[in-house]
């Protein structure tokens, strides 16, 4: 005699989180520690990843404006000289956390051509609430 197996009821899917990203945003910034880097713009490539948690997203107002994230990066790049890409990344991250929906943020900044024979110098910073 074979046993009848009754399947367990399937649980409703549960979203674990939502991440919003702006990837490979190219900007020119007055950036660099060395004297020869002052007074000229240099290219940066910026990635921003924002964790919005598990809140439902039904309307545009439930999520972040990608253009707003890009605007943060562009305004920082257009501002006064910054010595380090680490500082650029941290300022970007802190500005993104001004939005209370953002639970955590990861910012990666690449400086192409900064090192001979390397694609880029880069840093990554992460913050959370």
From TrEMBL:
What single Pfam family name could you report for this chain, choosing any that match? Answer: FolB
What pathway does the annotation place this protein in?
Cofactor biosynthesis; tetrahydrofolate biosynthesis; 2-amino-4-hydroxy-6-hydroxymethyl-7,8-dihydropteridine diphosphate from 7,8-dihydroneopterin triphosphate: step 3/4
Which domain of life does the UniProt lineage start with? Answer: Bacteria
Q: What is its EC number?
A: 4.1.2.25
In the UniProt record, does the keyword Lyase occur? yes
Q: Does the keyword Lyase apply?
A: yes
Check the record and name the InterPro entries matching this protein. Answer: Dihydroneopterin_aldolase, FolB_dom, GTP-CH-I_C/QueF
Q: Which reaction does it catalyse?
A: 7,8-dihydroneopterin = 6-hydroxymethyl-7,8-dihydropterin + glycolaldehyde
Q: Which residues form the Dihydroneopterin aldolase/epimerase domain?
A: 20-127
Q: Name one GO molecular function term.
A: dihydroneopterin aldolase activity
Q: Which UniProt keywords apply?
A: Folate biosynthesis, Lyase
SUPFAM superfamilies per UniProt: Tetrahydrobiopterin biosynthesis enzymes-like
Q: Which family does it belong to?
A: Belongs to the DHNA family.
Biological function? Catalyzes the conversion of 7,8-dihydroneopterin to 6-hydroxymethyl-7,8-dihydropterin.
Q: What is this protein called?
A: 7,8-dihydroneopterin aldolase
